[in-house]
Specification:
Blueprint: H1 5-15, H2 18-27, E1 32-33, H3 34-38, H4 45-58, E2 61-66, E3 69-74, H5 76-105
Antiparallel strand pairs: 1-3, 2-3
């Protein structure tokens, strides 16, 4: 996991913004054009494009332009990076709480 720290940092930074999280959530239902993604937000298209570029730079989305339409697609593999990190953290905390539970329930075995 340590080899992916920079990538993970980029994903967390990208997801730190609520607009970008909503875009990721929407793209979870399927590809969408930038115009469609921008419609629910009260901001100019150039401002919205900054969010698209941030998501693209983090690897969370891919975009492709066909004529005048830029379509965005969620990169589910990148979300897998988050899943892996969370699973690793969860295993560590579960092991710690298991050891604590053992110490509390079996104090006679504690050195």
């Amino acid at each position: 996991m340590a080899q992916h720290e920079d990538e993970l940092d980029g994903v967390f930074v990208a997801l730190a913004d609520p607009t970008r999280r909503q875009v990721v959530r929407r793209l979870g239902r399927g590809p969408a054009s930038v115009g469609e993604l921008a419609r629910p937000f009260a901001m100019t298209l150039p401002s919205f494009m900054k969010h698209v570029r941030a998501l693209e730079a983090s690897g969370l989305i891919r975009t492709a332009k066909s004529g005048r339409v830029r379509t965005c697609v969620l990169n589910r593999d990148r979300l897998g990076l988050l899943d892996d990190w969370l699973a690793e953290e969860r295993r560590g905390w579960e092991a710690r709480t298991d050891r604590l539970e053992h110490v509390v329930t079996h104090p006679e075995e504690t050195p």
